[in-house]
Amino acid sequence: MLDAAEALFARNGYHGTSMRDVAEATDTRIALVTYHFGTKDVLFNKVIERRASYMAHQRILALDAARTRAGDNPVPLEDLITGYVYPFVERSSHGGQGWKNYSLLISRVSNSPDWAKFISDHYDPIARQFVAEFRRSLPTIPEEDIYHAFSFMVGAMVALVSEPGRVESLSLRKFKSTNLEQAFKCMLPFLAGGFRALVDRS
To answer: Where's the DNA-binding part (predicted)?
Structure first.
């Protein structure tokens, strides 16, 4: 049921998906969907939560490894960016259709005021740990700028994994946006350069 609901929410949005749609997609009775989840809000939360939990675990593993490598020194910017962004890129690339659906769903809700608290509850605890390390790595940058830069990074990540087709359109089909691994290799120095440029600005 969660896979079917995820695909429907990704394609049609929250308001465009009903519990009846989920029941029809899974060839079950709507009463069974309601029995397991109660309301559409609960179902939606479960859809977001199951992959958010996995993503949080992967990111904290990456952050812990980066801290260990750095020892007493600040964690390099590239390691922080990779630790937060790459787990999502990797799953979107190699996690099958379910992760592609989830990526599209996150791109739908991540900038929606209606879901700000919802996304915050699932993603902010780990994000704050990364922000703290960015502050340690860039101590001369105003704290507010770090938060803005982190938000820009998240926005770029969401745009990448949602595969909107802008690269294809702009390049007249010469290049593809579906090779997320290759795109990340371009994104990493771009984002690191953006963070470093704030040092000169400060």
So the answer is: 18-37
HSE-CB at 93 with a 13 A cutoff on CA atoms is: 16
Q: Give the Cα separation of 4 and 23 in Å (integer).
A: 9
pTM score? 0.91
pLDDT bin (cut points 50, 70, 90) of residue 202 is low
Q: For residue 52, which of 3, 124, 148, 116 has the smallest C-alpha distance?
A: 124
CATH number listed for the domain at residues 48-201: 1.10.357.10
For residues 100, 101, 104 and 109, what is the CA-based torsion angle, rounded to 10 degrees?
Answer: -140
What tens digit of pLDDT does each residue of 53-94 get? 999 999 999 999 999 999 999 999 999 999 999 999 999 999
